[in-house]
């Protein structure tokens, strides 16, 4: 059974940090690129960041560049999203998702409504207070 399980969410003050984890099972993790997405109340889902399964290449949307860092632990089938200097506008449910190629994953990050990912987690809530 394919599973992507996010953890690490919670309440944090503006300027604080959190690290999200995405634990994968039930599929060949080494063959999939992983992306992080988020959805704030009343807003469409947006892409945040992704990492390639092939060469570790990463991509970030402009709003998180320099503040968030994505990383991958192949030994433990886990992807992390280190989030620093958090802002109230980062408040959202954060999801991880997997797709079989990095180009497709990056396309989904740039245009979540126009490109599909294969597997999704159920999300973890981040609330950043001002």
Task: Describe the fold and architecture.
The protein is 7% helix and 47% strand. It starts with a strand and ends with a strand. Strands 2, 4, 5, 6, 9, 10 and 11 form a seven-stranded mixed β-sheet that branches. It has a four-stranded antiparallel β-sheet with strand order 1-3-8-7, with no helix packed on it. The chain has 130 residues and is mainly β. The longest helix has 9 residues, at 102-110. A hairpin with a 6-residue loop joins strand 4 and strand 5 (46-51).
Entry keywords:
130 residues, mainly beta, seven-stranded mixed sheet, four-stranded antiparallel sheet, 1 helix, 47% strand
Contiguous low-pLDDT stretches (5 residues minimum) are none
What does the overall shape look like?
A: globular
Helices and strands, in order, run as: EEEEEEEEEHEE
Number of helices: 1
What's the alpha carbon Rg, rounded to whole Å?
A: 13 Å
Amount of helix: under 10%
Largest sheet: 7 strands, mixed
Helix vs. strand class: mainly beta
Q: What is the CA-CA span between the terminal residues? A: 40 Å
Percent in strands: over 45%
Number of strands: 11
What is the overall pLDDT average? 96
């Amino acid at each position: 059974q394919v599973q992507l399980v996010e953890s690490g969410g919670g309440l944090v003050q503006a300027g604080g940090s959190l690290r999200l984890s995405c634990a994968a099972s039930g599929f060949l993790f080494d063959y999939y690129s992983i992306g992080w997405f988020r959805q704030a109340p009343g807003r469409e889902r947006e892409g945040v960041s992704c990492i390639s399964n092939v060469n570790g290449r990463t991509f970030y949307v402009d709003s998180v560049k320099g503040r968030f860092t994505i990383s991958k632990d192949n030994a433990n089938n886990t992807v992390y999203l280190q989030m620093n200097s958090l802002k109230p506008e980062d408040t959202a449910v954060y999801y991880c998702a997997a797709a079989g190629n990095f180009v497709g994953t990056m396309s989904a990050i740039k245009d979540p409504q126009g490109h599909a990912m294969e597997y999704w987690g159920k999300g973890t809530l981040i609330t950043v207070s001002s």
